[in-house]
């Protein structure tokens, strides 16, 4: 769905969400919906291992960004929702591996629950892509 100022879209290599698109472009900003550890076929990845889930989450974020014409270096804000503080180090490692030397502002939140019992974390990002 496209209007004159907002474009909503989802890449073909990220599991479809039945009630929303994975990204919106409003002006120079791209907002990526919270991503979980589903592969492109909708299978859950990582089991109870939050670090393995985080690797898939960032893989999905990379795919959504690429679909919108952006790169990880264009991300200006990261928000991570996680269930267990003990998973923080593994989730952080996946984030640092994905972004490398790029270290945008990050907020980490502990929450009581997410979209299902298998979900250990969810990550959303905002990217800035002027003039595209």
TrEMBL record:
Coiled coil region boundaries: none
Signal peptide coordinates: none
GO MF terms, alphabetically ordered: deaminase activity
InterPro entries: RutC-like_sf, YjgF/YER057c/UK114
CDD domains: YjgF_YER057c_UK114_family
A GO cellular-component term linked to this record: cytosol
Domain of life per record: Bacteria
Protein name listed in UniProt: RidA family protein
Organism annotation: Rhodophyticola porphyridii
């Amino acid at each position: 769905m496209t209007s004159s100022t907002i474009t909503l879209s989802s890449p073909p290599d990220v599991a479809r969400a039945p009630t929303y698109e994975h990204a919106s472009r409003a002006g120079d900003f791209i907002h990526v919906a919270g991503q979980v550890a589903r592969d492109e076929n909708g299978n859950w990845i990582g089991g109870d291992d939050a670090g393995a889930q985080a690797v898939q989450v960032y893989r999905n974020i990379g795919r959504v960004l690429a679909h919108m014409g952006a790169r990880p270096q264009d991300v200006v804000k990261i928000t991570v929702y996680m269930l267990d503080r003990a998973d923080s180090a593994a989730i952080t490692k996946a984030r640092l591996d994905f972004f490398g030397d790029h270290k945008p502002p990050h907020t980490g939140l502990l929450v009581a629950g997410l979209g299902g019992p298998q979900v250990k974390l969810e990550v959303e990002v905002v990217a800035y892509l002027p003039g595209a």
